[in-house]
Design brief:
Distance between the termini: 68 Å
CATH architecture of the largest domain: Alpha-Beta Complex
Largest sheet: 6 strands, antiparallel
Radius of gyration: 32 Å
Number of domains: 2
CATH superfamily of the largest domain: endopeptidase domain like (from Nostoc punctiforme)
Helix content: 10-25%
Order of helices and strands: HEHEEEEHHHHEEEEEHE
Low-confidence stretches: 4-48, 50-55, 65-106
Mean pLDDT: 72
Amino acid sequence: MRNRARTMLKTVGAICLTTGLTFSMMVPSAGAVSVEEIWKSVTSQTGKPGTFVSVNNGTVSTGTSSTNGSPTTALTPKAGSAPSTSTNGSSTWETPSTTPTKPAAPKAETPGPRHASLADAIIATGEKYLGTPYKFGANYARDRAFDCSEFTRVVFGKNGITLPRSSRQQAQVGRTVALNALQKGDLIFFDTSSARAGIDHVAIYAGNGKILHAIPRGGVQYSSFSGYWVRTAVTAKRVIQ
C-alpha cells in the first residue's frame, strides 16, 4: 500500500499559485489523471488563469494556464519542490508566502450635514477669539486669555460639546482619525516638547490645510498644517457626532 501511495504521489499534482487556492486531489493510479484534467478541475473552481506545478515521475515543473483550463508547455523545473502527504494518500500543494502589500490610504469621509454645520459653527466661534493672548494654565472667565486646551474647551463648549481641561485628557475622547483623513472640526494633538514625551498641544483643524489654536507667540491664530506642525502631530480625534 505504501509503495502504491508513493507511486501515486510521483505521478502528478497541481496547484493554482496565483489565485490563493490550496488544492488537494487523490490520484487513484498511475496515469489515470492527466495534468490537464487536474488543472481544468482547479481553474473550474476559480475561473482565473494562473500557474500550475506538475510532478511527473519525480520531476517538478511549472507552467501557466488560461481560464479554459488548458496548461501550456511546462517552463523551468522547480528543484526541491515536493507535495506534502497526508495519511489518506492525497497530495496537497499550498500557496507560497507573498510579499506584503502596502495598505491602502484611508478613504476620505464625506461629512454629514450636521457635522459640516457644527464644524462651521465651531470655527466661527474660534475666530471670534483671534488675537486673544496666551497664558499657560489660563481660565478664560478669569484671565481673558487662553492656553491651547482652554481654547478648545471653551470653543467646543459654546457649541454643546463638553471637553476635559488638558490636551492629554482631550486626546482620550472622541474617535481616532488618520492625520491624512481630517475633516473640519477635528482635534489634532501634538508632542512639541523635546524635554518630555507626550501630548502637550491641541489645535482645531479648520479645513484647507489650516489649524486654529492658541500658542505662546501671538495667542489665538491660524497656522498652516505643514512643516513643524505636521512633524509634531501625534494623533487626531473626531468629537463631532
